[in-house]
Amino acid sequence: MTSTQRKATSLRVGMLLVPPVQLLDASAIDVFGMLTPEYLKACGLPQPLLDLAIPVSLHYIGQSGPGTHAPMTADATLPITDSLTSPEVQPGRLDVLLIPGPDPSVVPDAAVVDFIHAHKKKGETDFLVICTGSLTAGYAGLLDHKRATGPRGLEPKLKEKFPAANFVDRRWERDGRLWTSGGITNGLDLTAAYLHHKVQKELADLVCAMADIGDRSQDYESGKAGNTIWWIWLVLRSLVKGKPKSNPGKKES
What Pfam families does its record include (predicted)? Predict the structure, then answer.
């Protein structure tokens, strides 16, 4: 968005749930909810800050449709508000489609791929892809011929599955309407950057300050080599320590 383009005065946000979904990935949608008059008023903020708020409609989209729940990690579930065919979430009706990460082994059904592809073809929706959501996005062709990032540990798998993408080692990356993030909480880094792109700066500053996000650099502090060494060290340490041994002399309370 250039400086001559107007910032959004309202947002329609959909989150596509391909279960089982990482709960922390999905938490990024809460940042959008914090933009609203209802949320800021509940925080007891002064009127000049309340005047920054914008309306936001949130849609939780799942193949199983309304009345069902999407399974998440940590034994959580999330109610589905819209199916893939619900009128409010069709191409051209959403400003943002958030794709949190599922189990890395999950291959989305053809209906999910078609839903994503239809939004891409319409060209009016921004895609925010978090962590292993890069796999879902890849299967739908979102990553083809785009700069993208994903979980560092899955980079070899991503490059093998989606050779047409240009993967970079960053917390988040943007290429046109496609925004991708690395590991789980990098989705919050990405969302903070997106808000500064999409809404009035003062509103983005306010929400990011309240959520305590957006301070980390787009680039990792450690390179790939340092990250790999850390994982090797952790594996070796775990092998040496092994499982904690129970103390037979200790009585159960």
Answer: DJ-1_PfpI
What does DSSP assign to residue 136? H
**How long a stretch of residues is the chain?**
253
- Residue 131: C-alpha distances to residues 104, 115, 134, 151 (Å): 10, 20, 6, 6
* Strand residues in 40-141 grouped as ranges (E): 56-61, 69-71, 77-79, 96-99, 126-129
Q: Which residues contact 139 (CB under 8 A, 6 or more apart)?
A: 107, 108, 113
The tens-digit pLDDT sequence of the chain (253 residues) is 444 568 999 999 999 999 999 999 999 999 999 999 999 999 999 999 999 999 999 999 999 999 999 999 999 999 999 999 999 999 999 999 999 999 999 999 999 999 999 999 999 999 999 999 999 999 999 999 999 999 999 999 999 999 999 999 999 999 999 999 999 999 999 999 999 999 999 999 999 999 999 999 999 987 665 666 555 656 666 777 776 665 555 444 4
Q: Most distant CA pair in the chain: distance in Å? A: 73
What is the pTM (predicted TM-score) of this model?
0.88
What order of strands is seen across the sheet that includes strand 56-61? Answer: 56-61, 11-16, 96-99, 126-129, 178-181, 172-175
Domains belonging to the chain, first-starting first, are 11-239 (3.40.50.880)
Residue recorded with tokens 């910032």? 7
